[in-house]
Amino acid sequence: MTGNTKTVRFGILGCAHIARKVARAIGLAPGATLGAIASRSKEKAERFAAENGFPESVRIYGSYDQVLEDADVDAVYVPLPTSLHVRWAVMAAGRKKHVLVEKPAALDVAELDLILEAVESNGVQFMDGSMWLHHPRTAHIHQLFSVPRSANSIGPIRFIRSTSTMPVTPEFLASDIRVKPELDGLGALGDLAWYCIGASLWAKGYQLPTTVTALPDVTRNSAGVILSITASLLWDQPNQTVATIHSSFLSHISIDLAICGSDGSVHLRDFIIPYQETSASFDLTFGAKFVDLHIGWNVKPEEVHVANELPQEALLVQEFSRLVAGIRDCGSQPSSKWPEISRKTQLVVDAVKKSLELGCKPVTL
Q: Own/partner pairs for 68-73, CB < 8 Å, 24+ apart?
């Protein structure tokens, strides 16, 4: 091995747009470094490296296999189309490479299980690219969900509402991989609703909902790929909670998350990508009531600010690298937390899809 053995060396499979963001994050994250980049042609990889100012030490390959064969690569980041995740993640795990895969993790839970079986049998770490989970704001808010109740708890969660929408161009609708059934067949359900479903599960401590129901307002393109989707999730124990999610390529940008308990509520307007890199905020309301004649409120939401030293994507890379270094250098076992989060999210994605196929009937989990 070359270089600092305490550093986790990443290889990136593909030059997708999101790979620019993660490559930057690898450069910012303590304990991580970019070792290699590959595309299906070396010329494209060279161009990508030049455009992003990669150091000369980064090895450039014209095939993904070459990254997996590189003994100096500890972990691979897979930003390929979802239909290719299972092939390359399983191959990477077989070469003892740790696997950071872009979301959605797979096309369905059967494919994801193939990936998770491969990483488990090879003793490597798995994580998906849900960056917002690694922002300190997320941990700060989670303290408000404490059970049993405490003085700063919003109480049992009763209602969750989340949106992930963005307006796309005609070019996107014509040619982006996220609208191609053979590449990313889940469309907006995989690309955007993954966040909304993940946020709902996170708020409920990753307890799976009792039932999942797609609403009939789905919009598809001519190839049948989902462009807009709304669904509801219902938990009936230990206390009833309902979540509504809406994800769309056809609406103005909205990444809202509202969580209402019996005693208070939390509201984020930028839960997936904060308005700025260096801090993020949320609205917190306790004990709100309408004043006499219902002409106002007795309290205004408190705006809570949470600073962060690193962007959330660098915090994701830092956490992943910490786990990988523990396995490589200290004989630690891979963390099961992140595979379990991905699998539960994928189970709900599958249930929404199944509900659509059944004519929007409830699907029991």
A: 68/11, 68/92, 68/95, 68/97, 69/95, 70/11, 70/35, 70/36, 71/1, 72/1, 72/2, 72/3, 72/9, 72/35, 72/36, 73/9, 73/10, 73/11, 73/35, 73/36, 73/97
Structural tokens at position 90? 């399983």
Helix (H, G, I), strand (E, B) or coil at 280: strand
Residues of the chain with pLDDT under 50: 1-3
What pLDDT, in 10s, does the model give residues 208-241?
A: 999 999 999 999 999 999 999 999 999 998 789 9
- Rounded Cα distance between 117 and 106, Å, is 13
pLDDT in tens, 167-180: 999 999 999 999 99
Catalytic amino acids? 103
* pLDDT of res. 238: 79
For the chain, list the domains and their CATH numbers.
8-129 (3.40.50.720), 133-312+346-364 (3.30.360.10)
DSSP 70-103: -TT--EEEE-S-GGGHHHHHHHHHHTT-EEEEPS
